[in-house]
Write a structure and sequence with these properties.
The complex is a heterodimer of chains A (about 450) and B (about 325). Helix content of chain A is about 55%, strand content about 10%. With about 450 residues, chain A is of the alpha/beta class. Chain A has three domains: about 80 residues, Up-down Bundle (Four Helix Bundle (Hemerythrin (Met), subunit A)), CATH 1.20.120.140; about 190 residues, Rossmann fold, CATH 3.40.50; about 140 residues, Signal recognition particle, SRP54 subunit, M-domain (434 Repressor (Amino-terminal Domain)), CATH 1.10.260.30. Chain A has an eight-stranded mixed β-sheet with strand order 3-2-4-1-5-6-7-8, with helices on both faces. Chain A is elongated, with a radius of gyration of 30 Å. Chain B is an alpha/beta fold and about 325 residues long. Chain B has two domains: about 70 residues, SRP54, nucleotide-binding domain (Four Helix Bundle (Hemerythrin (Met), subunit A)); about 190 residues, 3-Layer(aba) Sandwich (Rossmann fold), CATH 3.40.50. The chains are: A alpha/beta (about 450), B alpha/beta (about 325). Chains A and B meet through helix 2, helix 6 and helix 9 of A and helix 3, helix 7 and helix 10 of B.
């Protein structure tokens, strides 16, 4: 089985080749694969359904762009929809309020609230030069208060002491007083983890929140969270005026579909993501990156973009028409092909972006057509007359010597090029349609990008 | 197994099943309530099975395991064995029980092997320390002498959190300073447990994500060091899994199993999960014994896993209960 969406898409999108337009029927199979992959990435089912519907609407009737195959066009739509769903651009914290600005962190047990509180404080101290105070109102988990106090000491934040025998509301009140008195810019409130179905605990956090007058209320969610993330996010969002989300433990290998669900049902921006064990491992959230991760397609997408930008579909079409009219594949056409390859950074650069099957030696493939060699071959063709390019059969021994001299190469190199051209010509004759994408299909299976 | 228990425990279990049912079906409930809605006309067809598959996926059962369960039901449907909703519930009950019974193996602590070392492992925030606290409470009530080893030397106040549980259960805790080598802490604790003739040593470790090679190697070292003291130890390597996590919980279990060779799994926070379908995914794909399940904050909310009653809790409606 395929372990990621890019693999699934490659398979499904292959069937789309040759279609000029995406339609309900020709994308059905691909969308099914997308649906499965999203579910396996823990995106909640209702969210998946809505998402697939939107993709269908956008894709059906879509003209396939200049240099993209239909499969690639679909991948692009999916990726851009994902980015849009995840929030487009990064939205930073809003600290425009009278200090102390209160930031409250809420979420389920074990989501990473206490660690995130410290990481956020460190970020505000170092990057934003804020005076930050930390307070824990977690009177439930043993040593939770001590944990925050120790972390505060570690990062040089102020700490408002509290005790597990106290009432959380009282702690909140005192923390507000203390943060005012010590001129803190920001007061970060760490709360106890609680389940959204625990009414008593939800009531507690609501009353603490009221007391806190929090300016930012952030829902902390574990990137490994499952299908229920959508329910917990909904209840928290209904109970508290959430202003944002922080995604934790993204350094794991979870695909992080929960991010999509939580973002979708709350409509609140994902502000940050935790990326490691260290206290400074908190990053601004980038929807783009998360979209690629959920799709599991890494650089395949950037390859699609490169092909889109660099391969001229017009040239490919010209060649195609020419072949159809019964005219041969001449040396000028070969040069165009070489130039297309070169503009993509040569086969070597392309290979690096593609998943290489285990039985293929990438080194050998690179040797086949490295950049240097492409340039030399183009130089050889440039040293020919127009007639020679059109009718390679006329190139005799003395012409070969002239061409070799003109391009600074040996006669053997000219021979090799002519032989290569002959092989290509044969190949081209077999094809009904031409262009770089057809050539890529000649590569071993598994090396072709989705939809090629 | 049920007969072996005295009446007071059975009484408690009755309460547990009730709570299990209530908690698993709290919030947005699934099967027991939704099954009736699946087939309003009472007729079972492919559409109903498709919808059921979606329900299973929503319960974190996972695409693959859900497809497997549905394939079995499809065969029965083809043989015209699924006439009505009862037959469907029955079929579902059977396939789920079949998957889960294979991993229903309670933790048994033999008289001879002591100290019996239980090494607790898991990702950050799974609930390792809390599980140790509850397990300590349970083992103590069963009459075992215990000791805790504070092997999480990384997270701030992890040692104090374990010490709080030690105090609560009146159990000694062996700890060193923060940042100490966890293998050394557990080594010391083992020596202490042996010299005091303690029955069970519960060793905490720091949470770690399964893809962090260096941290996983640290666990391998802990295991190796303990086994130098006693070739049989650690007798139990228990993975603590947060049931509210999705398909990555399966990846966690696979990776920890591959690196350490797990002997048991405890599933926590089932009360906040998408109805604990991840248990099915893990049982179906991994087959490591599931020792305990946790459905709430209280110590008695953690109980040995029993496949039958778990499936009952998922599928029984109030009418059939």
């Amino acid at each position: 089985m395929f372990d990621n969406l890019s693999g699934r898409l490659t398979q499904a999108a292959r069937k789309l080749t040759g279609k000029g337009r995406l339609s309900e029927s020709n994308i059905k199979d691909t969308l099914r694969q997308v649906r499965l992959a999203l579910l396996e990435a823990d995106v909640a089912l209702p969210v998946v359904k809505a998402f697939i519907e939107r993709i269908r609407e956008r894709a059906v009737g879509e003209e396939v762009g200049k240099s993209l195959s239909p499969g690639q066009a679909l991948v692009k739509i999916i990726h851009s929809e994902l980015v849009r769903l995840l929030g487009g651009d990064h939205e930073p914290l809003n600290l425009q309020a009278q200090p102390p600005v209160v930031i409250m962190l809420v979420g389920l047990q074990g989501a990473g609230k206490t660690t995130t509180a410290a990481k956020l404080a460190k970020r505000l101290i170092d990057a934003d030069k804020k005076r930050v105070m930390l307070v824990s109102v977690d009177v439930h988990r043993p040593a939770a208060i001590l944990q925050l106090e120790m972390l505060a000491g570690e990062i040089g934040a102020m700490h408002c002491a509290s005790d597990s025998s106290e009432n959380p509301e009282m702690i909140m009140e005192r923390a507000l007083d203390e943060s005012r008195r010590s001129h803190a810019d920001v007061l970060i409130v760490d709360t106890a983890g609680r389940l959204h179905v625990d009414d008593a605990m939800m009531a507690e956090v609501i009353s603490v929140h009221k007391k806190s007058n929090a300016h930012e209320t952030l829902f902390i969610v574990d990137s490994m969270a499952g299908q229920d993330a959508v329910n917990s996010a909904l209840v928290f969002d209904e109970s508290l005026p959430l202003t944002g989300i922080i995604l934790t433990k993204t350094d794991g290998d979870a695909k992080g579909g929960a991010a999509l669900s939580v973002r979708q049902v709350t409509g609140k921006p994902i502000r940050f993501m935790g990326i490691g064990e260290k206290i400074d491992a908190l990053e601004a959230f980038h929807p783009e990156r998360m979209a690629s991760r959920i799709l599991g397609m890494g650089d395949v997408l950037s390859l699609v973009e490169e092909i889109e930008g660099k391969v001229s579909r017009d040239k490919a079409n010209k060649l195609q028409k020419k072949l159809k009219r019964g005219r041969g594949f001449d040396l000028s056409d070969l040069r165009d092909q070489f130039e297309q390859m070169l503009s993509m950074g040569g086969i070597g650069a392309m290979l690096e972006k593609l998943p290489i099957p285990g039985n293929v030696d990438p080194g050998a493939l690179k040797d086949m057509a490295n950049e240097q060699q492409l340039k030399r071959q183009i130089a050889i063709i440039h040293s020919m007359t127009a007639d020679e390019r059109r009718f390679p059969k006329t190139i005799n021994g003395s012409r070969k010597r002239r061409i070799a001299n003109g391009s600074g190469m040996q006669v053997q190199d000219v021979n090799r090029l002519l032989k290569q051209h002959m092989q290509m010509e044969k190949m081209m004759k077999k094809m009904s349609r031409g262009g770089i994408k057809k050539m890529m299909r000649r590569l071993p299976p598994g090396m072709t990008p989705p939809g090629s | 197994m049920h007969q072996a228990e005295d009446t007071s425990i059975s009484g408690k279990r009755g309460g547990f099943i009730k709570r299990l049912r209530a908690r698993i079906n709290s919030g947005d409930s699934w099967l027991s309530y939704d099954l009736a809605d699946l087939a309003p006309g009472g007729k079972i067809d492919q559409d109903v099975l498709d919808e059921l598959e979606a329900q299973l996926v929503m319960a974190d059962v996972g695409v693959e395991t859900a497809a497997g369960i549905i394939a079995g039901l499809q065969n029965r449907l083809a043989r015209k064995e699924l006439k009505d909703l009862n037959a469907l519930t029955d079929g579902l009950h059977r396939s789920m029980t079949e998957i889960l019974e294979a991993v229903q193996q309670p933790l048994v602590i033999p008289e001879s092997d002591r100290p019996f070392v239980i090494l607790m492992v898991g990702v950050n925030g799974a609930g390792k320390t809390t599980t140790i606290g509850k397990l300590a409470n349970r083992l103590k009530q069963e009459g075992h002498t215990l000791m805790l080893a504070a092997g999480d030397t990384f997270r701030a106040a992890a040692v104090e959190q374990l010490q709080a549980w030690g105090e609560r259960n009146d159990v000694p805790v062996i700890a060193q300073q923060a940042g100490a080598d966890p293998a050394a802490v557990i080594f010391d604790a083992y020596e202490a447990a042996r010299s005091r003739n303690i029955d069970v040593l519960l060793a905490d470790t720091a949470g770690r994500l399964q893809n962090q090679k260096g941290l996983m190697d640290e666990l391998v070292k802990v295991k190796r060091v303990v086994s130098k003291l006693d070739a049989a130890a650690p007798q139990e390597i228990m993975l603590v899994l947060d049931a509210s996590q999705g398909q990555n919980a399966l990846v966690q279990a696979q990776k920890f199993h591959e690196v350490l060779g797990l002997t048991g799994i405890t599933v926590t926070k089932l009360d906040g999960s998408a109805k604990g379908g991840i248990l099915l995914a893990i049982a179906g794909k991994l087959g490591v014994a599931v020792r305990f399940i946790g459905i709430g904050e209280a110590a008695e909310d953690m109980q040995p896993f029993r496949a039958g009653e778990y499936v009952d809790a998922l599928l029984q409606t109030d009418a059939t209960a």
